[in-house]
């Protein structure tokens, strides 16, 4: 059993988007992501290291082990972490469903934007529980594309986002998974499950969020599935271009953008 194909692809542009997303949302998502010194932390699905460097900066005393299914992504993550001078992270290739670690070896597990790409998220959470010590914690962060809205919002803009949601679903993922974290963790057998919504809102008074989130994270993510959406027959080129133009219009002087992430913490 392995992950579905990554709907956003592995291009350099996607790597930049992930970095922009991580840096823009660091305070919102990670102000309370803290692990004790000397604790053993598994980051599963590290990708090219966008979240890894944030973990390293915030938790210099923790021993972090980061893994990903794609060896090329692991190599990029390792290079990024080393370029910033962090020395508390080890890297390894590994499938979330067949992790190369002993049972009950980690104090904490951290996964961010991973479950949305998996066809069996409960099975993935149970696989992570195997390597987590009894009483250890898991932190899960996911978005929910159904939570977005903007102003002005047009039917064409809504259809463009709907193409992303449908393309990810057809690839075996679930871009609406944020709202489901509580029941998924409970079904997987975790206890003391707590979920907190993290809303990002952007308007002209928050230019750093308009650029970092609205344009460089969310709209860039939608744009990234253009070819797949066209190939699947979910839209035509003209309607797609109108939708993307309308999304960018919501980043203008009189536009607004809003989206909700969900952060869950639970105990094995």
Which helices and strands occur, and which strands form pairs?
Layout: H1 12-30, E1 40-44, H2 52-58, E2 63-68, H3 71-83, E3 89-93, E4 106-112, H4 121-131, E5 132-143, E6 149-151, H5 155-170, H6 181-187, E7 191-202, H7 207-223, H8 226-231, H9 237-249, E8 256-267
Parallel strand pairs: 1-2, 1-4, 2-3, 4-5
Antiparallel strand pairs: 5-8, 6-8, 7-8
Description:
The chain is an alpha/beta fold and 268 residues long. The protein has a single domain, classed as Rossmann fold (3-Layer(aba) Sandwich), CATH 3.40.50. The protein has 9 helices and 8 strands. The chain has helices spanning 12-30, 52-58, 71-83, 121-131, 155-170, 181-187, 207-223, 226-231, 237-249; strands spanning 40-44, 63-68, 89-93, 106-112, 132-143, 149-151, 191-202, 256-267. Strands 1, 2, 3, 4, 5, 6, 7 and 8 form an 8-stranded mixed sheet that branches. β4, α4 and β5 form a beta-alpha-beta unit. α5 packs across α9. It is globular, with a radius of gyration of 18 Å. The two termini are 23 Å apart. The mean pLDDT is 94.
């Amino acid at each position: 059993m392995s992950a579905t194909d990554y709907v956003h692809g592995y291009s350099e542009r996607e790597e930049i988007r992930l970095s922009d997303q991580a840096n823009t949302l660091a305070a919102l998502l990670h102000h309370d992501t803290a692990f004790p010194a000397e604790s053993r932390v598994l980051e599963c699905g590290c990708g090219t290291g966008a979240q890894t460097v944030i973990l390293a900066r915030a938790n210099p005393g923790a021993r972090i082990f980061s893994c990903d299914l794609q060896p090329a992504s692991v190599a990029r993550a390792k290079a990024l972490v080393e370029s910033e001078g962090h020395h508390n992270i080890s890297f390894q290739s590994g499938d979330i469903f067949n992790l190369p670690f002993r049972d009950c070896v980690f104090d904490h597990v951290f996964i961010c934007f991973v479950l949305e790409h998996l066809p069996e998220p409960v099975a993935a959470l149970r696989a992570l529980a195997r390597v987590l010590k009894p009483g250890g914690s898991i932190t899960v962060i996911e978005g929910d594309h159904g939570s977005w809205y903007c102003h002005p919002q047009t039917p064409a803009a809504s259809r463009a986002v709907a193409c992303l949601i449908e393309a990810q679903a057809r690839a075996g993922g679930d871009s609406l998974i944020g709202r489901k974290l509580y029941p998924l963790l409970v079904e997987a057998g975790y206890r003391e499950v707590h979920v907190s919504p993290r809303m990002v809102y952007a308007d002209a008074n928050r230019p750093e969020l308009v650029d970092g989130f609205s344009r460089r994270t969310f709209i860039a993510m939608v744009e990234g599935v253009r070819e797949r959406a066209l190939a699947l027959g979910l839209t035509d080129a003209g309607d797609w271009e109108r939708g993307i133009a309308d999304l960018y219009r919501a980043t203008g002087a009189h536009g607004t953008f809003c989206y909700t992430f969900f952060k869950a913490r639970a105990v094995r």
